[in-house]
Amino acid sequence: MKAAVQVIAGIISMIFISFSLADPLPVRGSDIADKAVPSVPCQQCFPLERLSGPLSERAAELLLKALDGEALYTFVGDLKPMSSGFVSFNFDAQSPPAATLAGLEETRRILASWQCGQEYYAGLHHFAKVFDGKRYVDGLVIRRGLLEKVIDQRASFLSGFGITRSADPLEIVTAVEYASSLERLRHYGYLFGYPDHAVDFFVDAARSQEADGRFVKREFQRLPTFRASDERSPFVYAVPVGHVENDADRSLRQRAQQIQAEYRLRREKYIGPSRPGVVRMLRDWFDDGQGACSPVNARFGLARGGGSVVR
Predict the structure, then answer these.
(1) Residue 264 forms part of a structural domain
(2) I need a labelling partner for 98 at 20 to 30 A (CA). Which of 20, 170, 233, 309 fits?
(3) CA-CA distance, 148 to 217, in Å (whole number)?
C-alpha cells in the first residue's frame, strides 16, 4: 500500500507541468477579461448557503483549503486552467465501501456549489490505473475561459476525440487520462499551468526513461502558495539540472507572487474567528462595485503599483 501511494504521489506531482506561457499575459485574466463573461448577483457566486448547515461548513473549509494551495491560481487570475489534489480518495476498486461512496457523493454536492456564473467547473475525476487493487479519485476545479484556450492551442490532439470549445470539462480531462502515456503527460501539463519548456523537458525525460530505463535527473521550480513553505509548495514543475530561470519562469513567478500577495492580505482580513469568511472574501473580490460578481473583476492592487484594494 505504501508503495502504491508513493507511485500515485509521484505520478501526480510529475504530471503538474503544463500550459503554454510563451506570450506573457496580464495578471487580470487575459483572454478571459477580453471575452464576455457574464456577471451574476453576488449571492449566486459560491452559493454555499444552499447546502445544509454541516455540509455548508464543510464546503467552506474545503474551498479555503483549495485556495490555500495552487487552486488559487485557477480561481483567480490566468495561470492555471485546472488544479486538483485538494481532496482525494482511494478505495477497493472491486468492492468500494459504502462509507467511501457516501463521501464521494457528499463531495460532489460540495463541489457543485463552487460556482460563479459559468466560469468554473468543479467535480471529481478518477485515475484509470488501479494500484494494488485501489482506485484513486481526485477533486478538481477548472477555469472554462482558460480551458478554451488550451482547446484552441491543442486542437491537433483534442480534435481527435471530437472535442470542441463546448465540450464538458470532464470530457476533456477523461480524454487526456486515457491517452497514450506520453500524450497523457503532455496534455495534463497543458491543463495544469506551467511553461512549455518544462512540459517538453518532462515528456522528453519520460520518453528517454521508457527507452533505456534510466531516470533523468531534474531540479524543480516552486511557486508560492499559502499552505506550504516555498521548499514544499505543491505548485511545482520539473526542469533540467542546472536550468537557468528564463522569461517564461520569471513571468509566471511574478504573476503568482502578485496574486499570492493580494490573497494573503484578503485572507488576513476575512478568515478567522468573528470574520466574514471565505465566501464573503471571494464575493467582495469579484464584485464590480454594484453587487454583480465575476472572477474577471478580481484585481490586484500590488500588481498596479498601488495599495491593496481589499474592501
Answers:
(1) yes
(2) 170
(3) 34
Torsional sign, CA 81, 85, 88, 93 = positive
For residue 112, which amino acid is it? A
Three-point CA angle 175, 180, 182, nearest 5°: 110
Residue at 309 is within a domain = no
Amino acid at 79: L
CB 238 within 8 A of CB 220: yes
Residue 234 vs residue 122, higher pLDDT? 122
C-alpha cell at 176: 487526456
Rounded to the nearest 10 degrees, the angle between the axes of helix 98-112 and helix 53-68 is: 80
What's CA 270's distance to the chain center, in Å? 22
Per residue in 69-119, pLDDT tens? 999 999 999 999 999 999 999 999 999 999 999 999 999 999 999 999 999
196-227 per-position pLDDT tens digit: 999 999 999 999 999 999 999 999 999 999 98
Instruction: Indicate the pairing of strand 134-143 with strand 120-126.
Output: antiparallel
pTM of the model: 0.86
Q: State the total domains in the chain.
A: 1
Strands 292-293 and 40-41: antiparallel
User: Which structural domain range is residue 93 located in?
Assistant: 13-18+42-298
Say if 304 falls within a structural domain: no
261-284: per-residue pLDDT in tens? 999 999 999 999 999 999 999 999
β-pair partners for 293: 40, 287
